[in-house]
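Q: For a teaching handout, I want to show students what a protein-ligand complex looks like in token form. Below are the inputs, and the small molecule is L-homoserine. Please produce the holo structure.
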Amino acid sequence: MVKAISIGLLGLGTVGSGVVKIIENHQDKLMHQIGCPILIKKVLVKDIEKERRVSIDENLLTLNPSEILEDPEIDAVIEVMGGIELTREYLLKALANNKHIVTANKDLMALHGPELLAAASRNNCDLFYEASVAGGIPILRGLVDGLSSDRITKLMGIVNGTTNFILTKMSKNGSAYEEVLREAQELGFAEADPSSDVSGLDAARKMAILATLGFSMNIDLADVKVRGITEISEEDLKYSKKLGYTMKLIGLASRDGDKVEVSVQPALLPEGHPLAGVNNEYNAVYVYGEAVGETMFYGPGAGSLPTATAIVSDLVAVLKNLRLGVNGKSAVSPQFSKLLKKPAEIFAKYFIRIHVKDEVGVLANITLLFAEHGVGFDKILQLPLKDKDYSEIVLVTHTASLRDYECILQKLESYEMVKGIESTYRVEGENIL
Ligand code: NAP
Ligand code: HSE
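A: Here is the structure, written as tokens, with L-homoserine included.
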């Protein structure tokens, strides 16, 4: 009889339940790959009495983390409880006790990834985190293994399922923001605190992880410029459509020479762009490599079973390494020092919606301001407002530097003829490279 590999689970919520199901339902396939059964020895939860989405022997549940972190019979720990400080403490303890780690926790990896990876390497342990970015899409392996021979120059993606679900329902069905957010929570896509989804923070954490791996430099969360979806209005969605665009929360990481830019923001994409057709909780990441050209990774970005697939595949990798005796040998430290682009080095097109006095010469003055910065218009609409003294101007610029764009916005705000800048968004995906 072959000895089973014992694992401990930290967490049995949306993702943890999926992990239990996949380990049970795919036991034959898993056994064929790793040569032995996987035994779930203990599961840490917060509330023993809680009803579970998966049937599990109650004796496996514990409130005591030491029953996992300090059990010498447990070879690997799957962390699907979320959180940062306490979780970091647990994982450092598990690594110190020579346990391999698989985690779905982008909050933790974006903040403490280098520390945890160093601890893993010191203890000859694996620490894999495929599920932390884009749920069921094997994007981290795609970058680290599949495209390891190439030089990645750009990553552009939809990496948050909750916000994509919300924007899809708002723009296609006219659903109200609060109602769709609630639906995303019920479906298990949203974070425990969904403000990290809608504020763009969750996507920023994922972009920090993607850019670090893609560009082989340590990109911190603080390096990612973040804007969420909370300010997007029905008007913005209406005008996007009218001008032939789709609004998406876009994570962008680009490299020119040795300088990089990483951001998360709502952006307008041409309707025909492949990312514009990525709907609901689906995610997709465009990866541009100098040699490979364009590639796109697409799939479910959140949810129980898709995310659990990534986790159990990481576990298979750990167990294969265990058999070969090569755990803790695969992490490669970043090759390059980080150099961030300055606003004068970041170029994009912009959508701007402003309310102005409905007077002769206003449009001419605005055009002049943009022209002084060398910025022309690609599209422009002027429409009446209910208040007859004012009108609405909606325009899309030609490519401008971020420095010029910010300077123009500042000057517009100071103009007496401008009642207010209602909204502005970056336009992406027209001149992709
Ligand atoms: P969840 O449904 O809220 O489940 C969290 C689980 O962890 C629960 O079982 C909870 O116990 C347990 N737990 C939380 N804090 C604990 C503590 N201090 N001590 C002991 N147990 C604790 O969360 P989830 O959606 O599965 O997400 C888990 C992780 O996966 C998070 O890092 C999340 O960002 C990440 N992730 C989620 C998705 C997704 O689609 N949901 C996708 C990718 C990555 P009780 O059940 O007893 O309350
Ligand atoms: N809350 C996250 C999302 C879960 O909606 O994308 C997957 O990381």
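A: Two things your students might notice: The chain has a mean pLDDT of 95. The pocket of NAP (ligand 1) is lined by residues 11-16, 44-47, 50, 80-83, 86, 104-105, 131, 135, 188-189, 191-192, 302-303, 307 (CB under 6 Å).
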